[in-house]
Design brief:
It is a single chain. This protein has helices at residues 15-20, 27-47, 68-97, 103-114, 127-139, 156-160, 175-188, 192-221, 225-232, 236-243, 249-264, 268-281, 289-299, 305-332, 339-342, 355-368, 376-400, 405-422, 432-438, 445-460, 473-491, 498-510. The protein has a domain at 248-336. By secondary structure, the protein is an all-alpha fold. The longest helix is centred in the N-terminal third of the chain and has 30 residues, at 68-97. InterPro entries: MptA/B-like. Pfam families: MptA_B_family. Keywords: Glycosyltransferase, Membrane, Transferase, Transmembrane, Transmembrane helix.
Length: 511
């Protein structure tokens, strides 16, 4: 990955060397990523989150790509497409670090890479089928917070495509998002293909909101807009996970970023309202609210910081409660608080990507060598310890953000990352919660390389079908190698000299 000539290098005087330096608009890089995402889209019909009864392939002449060697071929094509997207993203990052491109090429690249995925089957997840199932429950007068989509006796295509784990599990999402899902299902009915496409179109509103907020956040937080867009919009986590998935985090992030921006611009009432609405889509947005109180308090006049904090806190609570109640009532037709208990549902997912769960599993395996024990007590204790650590860390970050302004936003971004890592479950796209806010700050190249490694790793630790690959150790070893190589390629083109080794025999033959 990412082994072509880097624009940051000083070219030699020869014509051949000059021709290797890309133009200011990276057409070839954008085209490479577009080819990659097109391969992702095509291969997903055999290797992605395919439907139980697929009306596109069905039992026709192309159905072979869903089985046996055909599916192996589809997987090979899909991972090739993924590699091209990452390669293009890393090349684009080198252009950004070299200062050779501005914001426009990054936006064009992200748009071109997302476009083929609009009509793709879900990639690396099947969550969108759950969204549609829960929306169908609300549409037909059932309570998504009481039971799973399996209780539906209509829309068989919607029900049967929900993952078995979530068939009988209450919805963990906010009521406003369920209302959105209800609208999608009311439009598309039992047509799952149209349902997935329309869900992506609706979630694009979230991307648009984030794009509107990022340039303004960068001005407040001191970053560089091309870097922020490269990190937050063109990355594999955004293109492949949030959009290719798709995931409702994309819409929540819009309310979060615009709300934080409003707070920085002294529009405190709007900030609290927007972040509360984001919480009604996905509860994670609530993490930002205590930090917005600090921003508000530091904008108030008066010498008493305690009094300013109490005023801002009281006003925030006074705004939060009616918006929360009204949003819940409008979405569900009642003040149904069942979605709080629904938040326990994702904790059924247990794997080592969540650090406390991983620690529990390590201790279990060590003890299991000597004594026959169950894994659950070890994981439960480790998760409880992780929650205590998260609470302590979050309170400390909140206290460190008491100066308001950019410091409070930075601490909010760090806290969102901590929630994604320490609170079960940890799912790959959860890291975008913090990365999108933090992208607007100033970044060092070595830190960007770390983000590349993390982005590639977390995108690949699930199979394209949405099933986890975390215990396929040979596969994970390859993922680690690909992640480290991608990170090194951001700072140094062809870090292992693979391209040079390929070219030297040709040079020897010419000489």
């Amino acid at each position: 990955m990412a082994t072509t000539t880097d624009p940051a290098q000083t070219p030699s005087a020869g014509l051949a060397e000059r021709l290797r330096v890309p133009s200011r608009f990276p057409y070839r890089t954008i085209a490479m990523g577009t080819v990659g995402s097109t391969l992702l889209m095509l291969a997903a019909f055999g290797a992605g989150g395919i439907l139980i009864k697929d009306p596109v392939l069905g039992h026709g002449p192309l159905s072979w790509i869903r089985y046996g060697h055909g599916r192996m071929l589809a997987n090979a094509v899909l991972y090739t497409g993924f590699g091209l997207v990452v390669w293009a993203w890393v090349r684009l990052g080198r252009y950004v670090l070299a200062g050779r491109i501005g914001s426009r090429p990054i936006l064009v690249a992200a748009g071109c890479w997302m476009a083929p995925l609009l009509i793709s089957p879900p990639l690396f997840t099947r969550d969108v089928f759950s969204y549609l199932g829960q929306g169908a429950q609300l549409l037909y007068g059932l309570d998504p917070y009481a039971n799973g989509p399996a209780e539906l006796d209509v829309l068989p295509n919607v029900v049967q495509n929900v993952h078995p784990l979530w068939q009988t599990t209450p919805a963990p999402y906010g009521p406003l998002f369920l209302l959105i899902s209800k609208g999608v299902v009311a439009t598309t009915g039992d047509n799952m293909i149209l349902g997935v496409i329309l869900m992506r179109v609706v979630l694009l509103a979230g991307l648009a909101g984030t794009l509107w907020a990022l340039p303004r956040l960068v001005k407040h937080l001191g970053g560089k807009l091309p870097v922020a867009l490269w990190l937050a919009v063109a990355s594999p986590m955004m293109v492949i996970h949030l959009f290719g998935g798709p995931h409702n985090d994309l819409m929540m992030l819009a309310f979060l970023t615009i709300g934080v921006l409003a707070a920085l611009e002294r529009k405190h009432v709007l900030a609290v309202v927007l972040v509360t609405i984001g919480m009604l889509i996905k509860p994670t947005a609530a993490i930002a609210l205590p930090f917005i109180v600090w921003i508000w308090a530091n904008h108030l006049e008066g010498e008493s910081k305690v009094r300013n904090f109490l005023r801002a806190g009281a006003a925030s609570v006074g705004l939060f409660l009616p918006v929360f109640v009204a949003g819940t009532w409008i979405s569900l037709g009642s003040l149904n608080m069942g979605w709080w208990s629904g938040l326990k549902a994702p904790q059924l997912i247990a794997n080592w990507l969540n650090i406390p769960t991983g620690i529990g599993e390590v201790f279990y395996n060590l003890v299991h060598l000597v004594v026959d024990v169950q894994v659950s007590p070890f994981v439960t204790v480790a998760r409880a310890a992780g929650m205590l650590l998260l609470i302590a860390f979050g309170v400390r970050q909140w206290w460190l953000g008491r100066g308001g302004g950019t410091e409070a936003v930075y601490r909010a971004g760090i806290s969102l990352l901590a929630v994604a890592i320490l609170m079960p479950p940890t799912l790959p796209w959860y890291l975008t919660w913090g990365f999108v806010l933090l992208s607007a700050f100033k970044w060092q190249p070595r830190h960007l390389a770390l983000v590349v490694a993390v982005s590639v790793f977390v995108t690949l630790v699930y199979y394209p079908t949405g099933e986890q690959a975390l215990y396929d150790w040979w596969f994970i070893a390859l993922v680690v190698v690909a992640s480290l190589y991608s990170a090194a390629s951001l700072l140094r083109p062809d870090p292992l000299g693979i391209i040079d080794a390929w070219r030297r025999p040709e040079k020897f033959l010419r000489d």
